[in-house]
Design brief:
The chain has six helices and 15 strands. The protein is α/β, with parallel strands linked by helices and 260 residues long. It has a single domain, classed as Metallo-beta-lactamase, Chain A (4-Layer Sandwich), CATH 3.60.15.10. Strands 7, 8, 9, 10, 11, 12, 13 and 14 form an eight-stranded mixed β-sheet that branches. Strands 6-5-4-3-2-1-15 form a seven-stranded mixed β-sheet.
């Protein structure tokens, strides 16, 4: 097994692509790279595997990629397109005593508890039900040999987090799927990261997401080894827009696998 492998379970924005009721060139495209489930990644290392965010297609994503085991889930924030697949996690805590580690900020955990109270109130801890073991993210933590560093970012009026993944002191990868601005602290932490995965919603501006130009400029500032754009809307034709990007910056697509 590679030391660090990322699979893009989804690379789309909150409504997915194709979008309901739309017959634009991207929503009707025959290019599979233009078909985007809601944004999420699966990370596999020799010691542990985890998912970042659980969108509404989680069951379909896991079936498609053959994912049968994870050790944890980590959350960036509690918007619907990032959490509503939560109950599908029941397949990863099947046994009567089996639990699944859930890592999120205190605010995000409070929202998840409110939305899925049945999983946290202690009355439904049966075989086959989701049995979360919540952990508050208030600083770096470890999953196997990987140090997970939360990165403060803003997503409109919401303060959320991305993640930097470090192994053996090396900045292997970073994942920032929903962000408009990145804190100075996070910018410094990201300089020279091996692989940057960052929000780039569409070509024109948006109040809560980076557009493609902003994401490109940010990548050029922190100088990663490679950059992949994600959380893509239906305004972006994969083939056409990627051909216009600077060297080293590409558009991620569902099922893409990176071995780092």
């Amino acid at each position: 097994m590679n030391d660090f492998a990322i699979t893009f379970l989804g690379t789309g924005t909150s409504v997915g692509v194709p979008m309901i009721g739309c017959d634009c060139e991207v929503c009707t495209s025959a290019d599979s790279r233009d078909q985007r489930y809601r944004s999420s990644i699966h990370v596999a290392t020799p010691e542990a595997a985890w998912i970042v965010d659980t969108g509404p297609e989680l069951r379909l994503q896991c079936l498609r990629e053959g994912i049968t085991h994870i050790d944890a889930v980590i959350y960036t924030h509690a918007h619907m397109d990032h959490v509503t697949g939560f109950d599908d996690l029941r397949r990863f805590s099947v046994g009567a005593d089996a639990t699944l580690d859930i890592h999120a900020t205190a605010e995000c955990l409070a929202d998840i508890r409110r939305m899925f109270g049945f999983a946290f109130d202690g009355t439904n801890r049966y075989p086959g039900y989701i049995k979360p073991e919540p952990h508050v993210i208030d600083g770096p933590f470890r999953l196997g040999a990987t140090e997970v560093v939360p990165l403060p970012v803003t997503h409109g009026r919401l303060e959320t987090i991305g993640f930097l993944f470090r192994r053996g002191g090396e900045k292997v990868a970073a994942y920032l799927p929903d962000c408009k601005t990145v804190s100075d602290e996070a910018r410094e932490a990201l300089r020279g990261v091996g692989c940057l995965i960052i929000d780039a919603l569409r070509p024109i501006g948006h109040p809560t997401h980076m557009n493609i130009g902003e994401a490109v400029a940010f990548s050029q500032e922190v100088v990663p080894g490679e950059t992949w754009l994600t959380h893509i809307a239906h305004e972006v034709s994969h083939a056409r827009v990627e051909s216009e990007l600077p060297r080293g910056i590409r558009i991620a697509y569902d099922r893409l696998k990176l071995e780092l």
